[in-house]
Design brief:
Order of helices and strands: EHEHEHEHHHEHEHH
Largest sheet: 6 strands, parallel
Structural class: alpha/beta
Shape: globular
Helix content: 40-55%
Low-confidence stretches: none
Mean pLDDT: 96
Number of strands: 6
Length: about 230
């Protein structure tokens, strides 16, 4: 049986996918990978995921999870039956972002994780949702649970991520690309670039939505995933 693997973003866990897990069709086995918590590079994260879930896979990756998914399809294209990439970026790290991440890593190491992540809320969520206290608290809870060591390691993995663009034109499986129209961390142009590079990819922009689209607009994400999975069937 083909398995659906949900891949969280940086410092995220299954909580970010909770609305999708309950909406997945029952004819698939659904798992949330935690390979990103046990590897130091994007390549190793993808390799662990492939080792831990044998057989044919449908990969759904959000943010850093999308980067892992793109690497997994590079490593094992024959095993990936379909690909959903949510709020992600195929490009390598820019010098500006590397400087920002290094500064954040210094703060994490100095015990200022909460300060950094509270400031990040303004970038992670659409302005219309940034005042949603339960939503923001859920996000901060799982990020703080990940802790500074995970944040440092995963940021370093992102900083050293490979450029996925050269291999995307060779992706032959059905691909869905989702992005919030107000995503400040991976803006819509990155989603459009991915969709343009992958032959036959479907691009869906979610209105009034930021980077944490699975949590901000679960209804729209679920509808897009459901339609896509029905087409695969």
């Amino acid at each position: 049986m083909t398995q659906i693997i949900l891949i969280p973003g940086l410092a995220c866990d299954a909580v970010m996918w909770q609305s999708q897990i309950s909406a997945m069709p029952t004819n698939y086995r659904v798992h949330v990978s935690d390979a990103h918590t046990r590897a130091d590079t994007i390549e190793d994260m993808a390799g662990r995921l492939l080792d831990e879930y044998p057989g044919n896979l449908i990969l759904c990756g959000a943010s850093m999870g999308g980067i892992v998914a793109m690497e997994a399809v590079r490593q094992a294209p024959q095993r990936i039956r379909a690909l959903a990439l949510l709020g992600t970026n195929a490009r390598p790290e820019t010098d500006e972002m590397r400087r920002l991440r290094e500064a954040a890593i210094t703060l994490f190491a100095n015990g200022r994780t909460a300060e950094v992540m509270r400031a990040n809320v303004a970038f992670a969520f659409h302005p219309s949702r940034a005042g949603d206290t339960p939503l923001v608290s859920t996000y901060l809870d799982f990020v703080m649970k990940a802790g500074p060591a995970q944040l440092i390691r995963q940021n370093r993995a992102i900083m050293a991520r490979p450029d996925a663009r050269p291999h995307l034109p060779a992706v032959s499986c059905p691909t869905l690309v989702l992005c919030g129209d107000g995503d400040q961390l991976t803006p819509p142009q990155y989603a459009r670039e991915i969709a343009d590079l992958i032959p036959g990819a479907t691009l869906v922009m979610l209105p009034q939505c930021g980077h944490m689209l699975t949590m901000e607009r679960p209804d729209l994400v679920n509808a897009a995933l459901s339609q896509w999975l029905q087409q695969l069937a």
